[in-house]
């Protein structure tokens, strides 16, 4: 298994786009309704490279690095959910997209839902993939904050590997390849990475997080047809948190994928892709195989 060679048979482009003043790294592939993929805290667009070929059969797939993430630039200021949502909408504007399907994993799911609530006209269908820690558990925030900070401050491949393996179900940790570690290690050792990661981690501060925490009040404003996509081994929160979102988001449905942790797009890509293609094309839910 390798990352970039997997795209060899799929035409794609990689470029930088100015989105809200932020030089933003963007990958695009395929034609059809636009589908934007949003990664998690400390992540980068490579998180979805195992999914782009299949999804590009039906959609104009757009994966990008959030502000202050990957190889996108970022101002020296705290990155809140509004910061990320503003960046997302600015990117849609820069790409000439009025509305799109959004699929966000972890932080990306939080940003996608927040955007759907505040700007419903920009979102067609919505997939929330393990948005995680819906109930604001302090121990989960501390684990994510500490492991991410350690991976950057130590600037070592073992620390980066430990951060990645935390995301995966125990049986799937062999999928954290040397190549994947090297990609993230390169990002975490870029000039200015230590200062930037502190802006990224501001959402693990309980006082900041409370301003954006999941509530029924703002979730009830989501009008997009929504799939809450959880797993049975997510380290940030059990499927009951997905059930909570299902109750709060009008008309939403919940799917729980077995044998996966916090990165189902990487751990079980075939199932992840098939579920997305079915739901985003027709609104139907495909029950996953065990």
CATH architecture of the domain at 4-134 and 216-282: 3-Layer(aba) Sandwich
Structural class comes to: alpha/beta
CATH superfamily of the domain at 4-134 and 216-282: Alpha/Beta hydrolase fold, catalytic domain
Question: Which series of helices and strands comes N to C?
Answer: EEEHEHEHEHHHHHHEHEHH
Report Rg: 17 Å
CA-CA gap between termini: 22 Å
Q: Could you list the spans in which at least 5 consecutive residues all have pLDDT below 50?
A: none
Characterise this structure.
- Helix 2 (81-94) crosses helix 3, helix 4 packs antiparallel against helix 5 and helix 4 runs antiparallel to helix 7 (193-200).
- An 8-stranded mixed β-sheet has the order 1-2-4-3-5-6-7-8, with helices on both faces.
- The protein has 12 helices and 8 strands.
- By secondary structure, the protein is α/β, with parallel strands linked by helices.
- The protein has a domain at 4-134 and 216-282: Rossmann fold, CATH 3.40.50.
- It is globular and about 45 Å long.
- The two termini are 22 Å apart.
- The chain has helices at residues 52-55, 81-94, 107-118, 138-153, 157-165, 178-188, 193-200, 206-209, 216-219, 239-248, 264-267, 269-282, and strands spanning 12-19, 22-29, 34-38, 60-64, 100-105, 123-129, 225-231, 253-257.
């Amino acid at each position: 298994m390798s990352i970039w060679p997997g795209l060899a048979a799929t035409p794609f482009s990689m470029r930088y786009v100015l989105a809200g003043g932020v030089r933003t790294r963007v990958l695009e592939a395929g034609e059809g309704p636009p589908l934007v993929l949003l990664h998690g805290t400390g992540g980068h667009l490579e998180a979805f490279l195992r999914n782009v070929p299949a999804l590009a059969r039906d959609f104009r797939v757009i994966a990008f690095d959030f502000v202050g993430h990957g190889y996108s630039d970022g101002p020296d200021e705290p990155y809140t959910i509004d910061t990320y949502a503003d960046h997302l909408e600015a990117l849609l504007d820069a790409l000439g997209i009025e509305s799109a399907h959004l699929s966000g994993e972890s932080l990306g799911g939080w940003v996608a839902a927040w955007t759907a609530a505040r700007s419903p006209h920009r979102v067609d269908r919505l997939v929330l993939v393990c948005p995680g820690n819906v109930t604001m558990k302090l121990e989960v925030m501390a684990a994510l904050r500490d492991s991410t900070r350690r991976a950057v401050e130590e600037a070592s491949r073992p620390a980066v590997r430990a951060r990645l393996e935390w995301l995966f179900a125990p049986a799937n940790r062999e999928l954290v390849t040397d190549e994947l570690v090297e990609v993230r290690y390169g990002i975490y050792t870029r000039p200015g990475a230590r200062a930037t990661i502190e802006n990224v981690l501001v959402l693990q501060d309980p006082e900041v997080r409370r301003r954006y925490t999941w509530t029924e009040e703002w979730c009830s404003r989501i009008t997009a047809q929504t799939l809450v996509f959880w797993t049975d081994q997510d380290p940030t929160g059990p499927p009951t948190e997905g059930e909570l979102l299902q109750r709060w988001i009008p008309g939403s449905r919940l799917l729980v994928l077995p044998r996966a942790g916090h990165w189902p797009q990487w751990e079980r890509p075939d199932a992840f892709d098939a579920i997305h293609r079915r739901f985003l094309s027709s609104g139907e839910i495909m029950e996953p195989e065990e």
